[in-house]
Amino acid sequence: MSRVTDSLVWGSILGFCLFSASFVGADEGVLHFEGSECVMKNWGSAESFGAKTETFSGHSFYFYLGEKSSQQYPSLSLALEEHNKNNLNWLKEQRREIVDKIIPAALKEGTGALSCLPFIRNIDFKLRRADSKVLSFVESVQTYDLGAHGYDAKVGHNFDVATGKKIEFSEVIQDKTHLAEILEKKLEKNYPDAMFFGLKPALRNHVKKEDFSWTLDPQGVTFYFNPYDLAPYCEGMLTVTILFKEQPQIFADKYKSVPENYCMQLNYYPLRCDLEDDGLVDSLQVVPIEDNQYKIILNNLTVIDKGDNNTNSVLVHTRNGRNYLYVDSLDEHDNRELHVYDLNTSLPEIVGKLPYTMRKVKQNDPDTIVSESFPIFSDPDNFTLYDNNKGWIRSFKVSENGLPVLE
After folding, report:
1. Mean pLDDT of 203-217
2. Is residue 1 scored above 60 in pLDDT?
3. What's the rounded Cα separation, in Å, for the pair 400 and 381?
4. Rounded to two decimals, what is the model's pTM?
5. Helix (H) or strand (E) holding 172
6. CA–CA distance, 175 with 189 (Å, rounded to integer)
7. Could you name the CATH architecture of 1-157?
8. Per-residue pLDDT tens for 296-345?
9. What is the pLDDT of residues 53-66, one digit of tens each?
10. What is the structure's pLDDT at 150?
11. Is 175-251 a CATH 3.40.50.11540 domain?
C-alpha cells in the first residue's frame, strides 16, 4: 500500500463575498454573503510512484449569509450551513474512498493504471438570484476518474428566503401541460445542430418525473441538461430559459415578480435573460480564446478584448433598467483589472478599464496550494472590489454610467 500524505487547507476568504454588516446603503431586499473555500489534496510517495505525485485534488466553494442577512433570515442561514456541511462531507468521503481503497487496489496492479493522476472532485457555484424572496444558485460538480474525459454536472438549488426550505419545482411551474413542447422548441432553436437522443419522448419523461436541474432566475426559470441527459457528451451543457413574460400562464403568481436590481454570475455556457425587457430571450456569453484574449457574445454579435483564460464575469442590472457586464481579467502587464461594458446597445461597448479586481489571491502553501477567492456580486448598490497593488478592500456601487464608484 502506498504511503500518502494529506493536505487539508481551509482558505479563509477575507472579502470573498460582501460584508453587509459594515456597509452603508445596502438594499434591504438583497441578500449579502460571506464565503470560504476548502481545498483538499493528497500526494503519493516517490517510493510508490517513482516521484512525489499528486493523487487527489479537490475543492469546494461555498458561502454563508452575511451578519445582517443572517439576522434577518435565520432559517435560510441554517439551511445554507447544512448545505455547505453536506458538500464538505461529500468531498471528504470521495477523498477517503479514492485514497484508501481505489488507489491502493490499482497500485497492486502497477502504476500504469494511474498514469493520468490526479483524481478530481470539485464543487463550484454561480449565483442566479438573491433577494428577499428567493436564493437560487447553480453548482458545478466536476469529477475525473482518469478516463478519456471528466464530467461536469450542473445542479440547481432554490431556497425560500423566509423559511429556508427548498422550493419545489411544482411550486413554481403550476401548469406542465405544454412544458415539454415549450422546452423542445427552445432547445431546437438554441442548438439547431445538436444530435439529440429522441428529444420529444425524453422531455416528456423529464416533465412527468419532474426530473430537472433548474434555477429560479430574476426573470424566469432556467433548465440545465447535463451531458447524456438529452444528447451525447460532445454537445456539452444544454440550457433553456423560459421568461415569466413569455409563458405567464405556467408560472405561479408568487414567483413572477421581477426584482428591481440584481446580479447574475456567468459560467462558460450562455446566460439567457431579457436585457431589453421586451419578453424576448437574449444570450450573453464570455469565452476565453487564444492569444490571451476573450470574446463577449451578445445575441451572435462578438466583441474581442485582451484578457486571460480565467475571467470572472457578472451581469449587473440596475434600478433604472440598465445592464452592464463586469469582467475581471488581466491588463497587458498581467495585472488584474476590471473591464466594464455597456450592454444597452446592440453591441457591447467598453465603458472603462479600472485597476480593481473582483478576486483576492492568497498563498496558503508556497509548495502546493494557491487559493483564489471571488466575491459574490449580489447587490449593484453594494459590492466589494480589491486593489491588490495598494492592498485595500472597499465598498462600491454601480454609477449611472456603469462604472463602480466608492460608497
Report:
1. 96
2. no
3. 11
4. 0.89
5. helix 169-172
6. 22
7. 2-Layer Sandwich (3.30)
8. 999 999 999 988 777 889 999 999 999 999 999 888 788 889 999 999 99
9. 999 999 998 888 88
10. 96
11. no
Picking from 272, 247, 244, 241, the residue whose alpha carbon sits closest to that of residue 258 is 244
> Minimal CA–CA distance to 236: which of 185, 306, 287, 173?
287
Cell of 91: 468531498
CA distance linking residue 281 with residue 265, whole number of Å = 17
Q: Could you tell me which of 39, 41, 40 has the C-alpha nearest to residue 12?
A: 39
Q: What angle do CA 66, 365, 58 make, to 5 degrees?
A: 65
- Other CB atoms within a 10 A radius of the CB of residue 207 amount to 20
Query: Would you give the DSSP letter of residue 127?
Result: E
User: Residue type for 364, please?
Assistant: N
**Taking a C-beta distance cutoff of 8 angstroms, is the pair 222, 246 a contact?**
no
Residue 199 and residue 385: Cα distance in Å, rounded?
44
- The domain spans of the chain are 1-157, 175-251, 266-374+384-407
Which residues, 6 or more positions from 372, have their beta carbon under 8 angstroms from its beta carbon? 359, 360, 361, 362
CA distance to 251, 256, 268, per residue, from 246 (Å): 10, 11, 25
Enter the C-alpha cell of residue 347. Answer: 453591441
Per the CB < 8 A criterion, the answer to whether 350 and 309 are in contact is no
Count the Cβ atoms, other than its own, within 10 Å of residue 133: 18
Give the cell for residue 159.
431556497
Q: Is 89 strand, coil or helix?
A: helix
Instruction: Tell me if 356 sits within 8 A of 407, measured CB to CB.
Output: no
DSSP symbol at 111: G
Residue with the three cell numbers 454561480: 126
Instruction: For residue 315, give the nearest of 271, 278, 282 by alpha carbon.
Output: 271
Contact 354, 348 (CB under 8 A): no
